[in-house]
Write a structure and sequence with these properties.
Elements lengths: L1 H13 L9 E13 L6 E12 L2 E13 H9 L9 E10 L6 E6 L2 E4 H6 L20 E4 L11 E7 L8 E7 L4 E13 L2 E14 L4 H5 L7 E13 L3 E11 L5 E13 L2 E9 L12 E2 L5 E2 L1 E14 L5 E15 L5 E15 L3 E16 L11 E11 L3 E12 L9 E12 L5 E12 L2 E16 L3 E12 L1
Parallel strand pairs: 1-27
Antiparallel strand pairs: 1-2, 2-3, 3-4, 4-5, 5-8, 6-7, 8-9, 9-10, 10-11, 11-12, 12-13, 13-14, 14-15, 15-18, 16-17, 18-19, 19-20, 20-21, 21-22, 22-23, 23-24, 24-25, 25-26, 26-27
Amino acid sequence: MKKILFISIITFTLLPLFSQTKKADLQFTTKGVFNLEPDKENTFTGSGGFSLSLNALNLRGFASILKTEFYQISDTITSKNPGELFSDQRWSARTTLFRNTLPFTVAAGSLSFTKAVSRTKNPVPSLPSSPVQKTFSRTCGIGLTLPGISSTQKPLSYFLNLDFIKTGLPLNLQAAFNQEDSSAFFCAETRFRPAARAEFQTSLLFSSTVLENNSSFLKEQNCLFEKQRSGSVLWECFFNSPFLKLNFYSGIQQNPFGITSLYLNSKIRLSAGNFLLDASYFAIPTSENSPKAVPLISSNGTLIKTVEQSSINPQLIFLTKEGTLIRTGLTASQTWKITGTSSVSTIDVGKISAGILLEKKHSSLKASFSAANLLLSGSPPAKSSVPDKFYEFSMSCSSKQPLWNGNFSLKCRQYPPKASGETVRQTLSADTSATLGKLRSLKLSAGLDLSAKNSIKDSGKYSLGAQWKVQKKHFSSSLQVTLNQKF
């Protein structure tokens, strides 16, 4: 594998050198974290690497020291193989040819594929994280992420992208390959503007992956199958205008039980004056034809247990005369899914939340209250088959000043007893940080975690941290020291 990667990097390096313009940018980056725990061995985690840009070429190389105890580091350095410390290595090369006529991008190395590829691995969308959220998902096509200082090791992968837009044809062709799991993805994407302030984007993804029956749950349910190659198709479209946003995708996945599975999701955002409405719906219509315990097996072999999911999130937005932006919102969602281990059943759980966001030019305050994992219907085979119901209050605030930035967050949860006579559990977590100086080079942080039963402390932990950042033209570095203490 290393030989193939070396050849790929050399090839991509030589190709752009035939161009006349030479623009070079070399950046070195290091990161280290000292973790001090009085009750345990002290550990260190570190990463370092470089990024080189030369014309249309980008080379990246990073290596990490995974969480290692201090004495192990000194022993390895004095040994004959100090390179064993850097067990997590990531390399990549990317270049774009014919940029002015028909841009053709090639990449190889420790690549991560997102957007449409992630949809085929887990098509269930995430529920709204906040009742006053601003973002709206847009995920057409294959997304590519090169390795960075904080990334993890990935198997050797390849990526190709051919963009016809400069020829007058609104078409983008993409392909992605993963050597380790023998997966391949091919995508055709197009976008155009049906009106001056409207945009439409759509993509069609074909995938070929290998499925293995590594799930003990499936074996317990006698849902056995042999290792086999499986194909899927994912169609996704995105429409964007000042008053309407729509993200829709639908996929067909080959099922190892001889059934073709279908899933679909639709999310919409309507805006009118001070009113905003988000709504989403996900379903696997073919779940009745599949084994009861297996609504869907995704492209990477993940068992998808959510059969149906919906959410609605209305918001009101105001701007005061003093310049304060106020957002208030409500969220209600329901999830119908498979639960249980030895025997399976379906349950319908819900979540409701309400929140408010206040924003000024240099500060913000957000607060919300939620009730989650509410059992709406279904007969779970055991108490453990139902996720723990809880009530939560959370808040966060931030401030930006010329010489410092500050953040504070608080989250309190209460888990009511599942049956009479059981204890009531509470948890509390708080975090605060301040970044100091004009260059924001020093960051101080503190955190607190508490858990209690019937309002009596059960366990607690606090943490203190300091981080120093250095940013130069060709070099950036950070060093962090964290102290964790139980009490």
